[in-house]
Design brief:
- With about 550 residues, this protein is α+β, with helices and mostly antiparallel strands.
- It has 2 domains: about 120 residues, no CATH class; about 375 residues, Peptidase S8/S53 domain (Rossmann fold, 3-Layer(aba) Sandwich), CATH 3.40.50.
- Helices cover about 25% and strands about 20% of the residues.
- The protein contains 13 helices and 27 strands.
- The strands form 8 sheets. Strands 12, 13, 14, 15, 17, 19, 20 and 23 form an 8-stranded mixed beta sheet that branches. Strands 4-5-3-9 form a 4-stranded antiparallel beta sheet. It has a 3-stranded antiparallel beta sheet with strand order 2-6-7, with no helix packed on it.
- The chain is globular, with a radius of gyration of 23 Å.
- The termini are far apart.
- This is tripeptidyl-peptidase II.
Length: about 550
């Protein structure tokens, strides 16, 4: 047997409760070695780099899948092994690079030289059946990249903290109605210094209020961890903060893993409501879909990230933009698993989907603030095929939000589109934080928007929240409106954004040059001129981005 993954102990917060019963059923997934991931990356850059003659000529579902389809030898080796153990399987991706099957714990222990135990989370009481190590037969080691669930524990986190309830509607800044001063330099209402609303973001970034016109243009919002977007709360939000559009404007729903659409006010999720209210409320007229990932992943299991991407890969017409306000610490995910999931995002990018992730809320200490020595990168922000969104605060001037997660991946090398911008930042950084981060890794975030004091409505109550969860749906809305303008002009959606952002659009972003993201007992990274590891290339200027997009 060849060891594929091992951890010395469960992650912080988990304790072992004992061996899992041999009769307990597990649904396992095997990631097969992909045939040509380098070809996929080349194809992705070919259709995403503005100087390429194939820019915007996105791949079909079948063309993208062909790059990651396992070889006939790999498929035959793994399926023969399963058949020899009387296990039936199904392919769960169009490429057939993920296989799924169900076995009991006793069988899984024998197949993978594993010891599945029950682990209990000390705070939530949730349990997970996991193993500290697993192996595959030596002759399969070149054909199998990863097995899930094995050593990966539930760890998906929302990047929006608990809502602060607004107790008085008369407090300055909590209504779009009434008198307020307008800053002469920015043209933004002074009330936006206290509370951010859609009109604040529209003024600050030049986001248009006119409705999108192209029905083919769609925006997807990811929902995990029993977070449900409430339609009545959206209606209340629009009636207060977007009085220029019908308050009956709503969103569509797609579900997987027995996802639900609970509409009782008490079931409304802060994260889900935030994401929907600032996509529907900013991407005016864009068809917006909430994608609810269900009960199998209600405790924050990585399977939710796998499932939603597999779900979208199967669609003939996935959304043109996908925003996700959840993430993990990179080290919580085995490297091969992270690479495989990153390649799934590359497939969607090659097909013309812009994938945005909130960078995290722990500064340099990871997805949430935690004790650390070395800096903690986050995932999927560290995937070079996604666009990571950090956060700012303040209006004049706009500065980095201290919680904005940023840094450098330990798994993924710096991509070519970042060489100049990130190289310049590292030169300017000098010896600051030397040895605490991987200076050759993919840098994140890529861009930023406001991320503090966002007004939302949850269960009928108005309140405010902070987090990069505010920033990702905001930037996603900008991209969706750019895509609408491109569709109206007869051109393709922007797709994978980063090569365009770094080559063509960096001058179309507002450079943030002050603030930092402390953590791990340090001041973290400083915001500087150009790209930085707190706010990326900066915040959007819609008119300039429209020009950069050829409109």
């Amino acid at each position: 047997m060849r060891l594929l993954a091992k951890r010395d102990s469960p992650p912080k917060g988990y304790t072992v409760s004992g061996a899992a019963s041999g009769d307990t059923m597990l649904t396992l997934r095997v990631a097969l070695a992909q045939s040509n991931p380098q070809g996929l990356e080349a194809a992705l850059y070919d259709v995403s780099t503005p100087t390429s003659p194939n820019y915007g000529q996105h791949l079909t579902k079948e063309e993208a899948a062909a790059f990651v389809a396992p070889s006939n030898e790999t498929t035959a080796a793994v399926t023969s092994w399963l058949a020899a153990n009387n296990i039936s399987h199904t392919a769960v991706t169009p490429a057939g690079d993920w296989l799924s099957f169900s076995v009991n714990v006793s069988t899984a222990n024998n197949l993978f030289a594993a010891q599945y135990n029950v682990y209990t989370h000390e705070t939530t009481g949730n349990t997970a059946v996991r193993t500290m190590s697993y192996s595959v037969p030596d002759e399969l080691s070149a054909h199998v990249d990863a097995v899930y669930p094995t050593t990966t524990f539930p760890s998906i986190k929302s990047f929006a903290p608990v809502m602060r309830v607004v107790k008085s509607r008369s407090r300055k800044g909590h209504s779009t109605k009434g008198a307020s001063n307008t800053d002469a330099a920015t043209g933004v209402s002074s009330s936006c210094e206290d509370v951010i609303t859609p009109s604040c973001l529209q003024s600050l970034y030049g986001i248009p209020t006119t409705a999108a016109t192209q029905s083919s243009n769609t925006l997807g919002v990811s929902g995990f961890i029993d977070q449900f977007a409430n339609k009545q709360d959206l209606q209340t939000f629009l009636s207060k903060f977007r009085t220029d559009i019908p308050d009956t404007t709503t969103f569509s729903l797609e579900t997987l893993d027995d996802g639900e659409d609970l509409q009782n006010g008490a079931d409304a999720g802060t994260e889900a409501n935030l994401d929907i209210q600032y996509t529907v409320g900013l991407a005016t007229g864009v068809n917006t879909t909430f994608i609810s990932v269900g009960e199998d992943n209600s405790d924050g299991d990585l399977g939710g990230f796998l499932d939603i991407i597999e779900f979208l890969l199967k669609q003939d017409n996935p959304p043109s933009v996908l925003t996700t306000s959840y993430g993990n610490n990179e080290a919580d995910i085995p490297e091969k698993m992270a690479i495989n999931l990153c390649n799934a995002h590359a497939q969607l990018g090659a097909r013309g989907v812009s994938i945005l992730f909130a960078s995290g809320d722990g500064g340099v200490s990871g997805s949430q603030d935690e004790e650390c020595t070395d800096f903690v990168p986050t995932f999927p922000s560290g995937c070079p095929y996604t666009t990571s969104v950090g956060a700012t605060t303040g209006i004049n001037p706009e500065v980095a939000a201290s919680f904005s997660a940023g840094g450098f991946s330990n798994y993924f090398a710096r991509p070519s589109y970042q060489e100049s911008a990130v190289g310049a930042y590292l030169t300017a950084l000098g010896n600051t934080n030397a040895g605490l981060f991987n200076s050759t890794g993919r840098g994140y975030p890529d861009v930023a928007t406001q991320g503090e004091n966002f007004a939302i409505v949850v269960d009928g109550q108005e309140g405010t929240v902070d987090g990069t969860s505010c920033a990702s749906p905001t930037f996603a809305s900008v991209v969706a409106l750019l895509n609408d303008a491109r569709a109206a002009a007869g051109t393709s959606p922007l797709g994978f954004l980063n090569p365009w952002l770094y080559a063509n659009a960096s001058a179309a972003l507002n450079d943030i040059t002050s603030g930092d993201n402390p953590g791990c007992g340090t001041d973290g990274f400083p915001a500087k001129q150009g790209w930085d590891a707190v706010t990326g290339l900066g915040t959007p200027n819609f008119a300039a981005l429209k020009t950069a997009a050829g409109l």
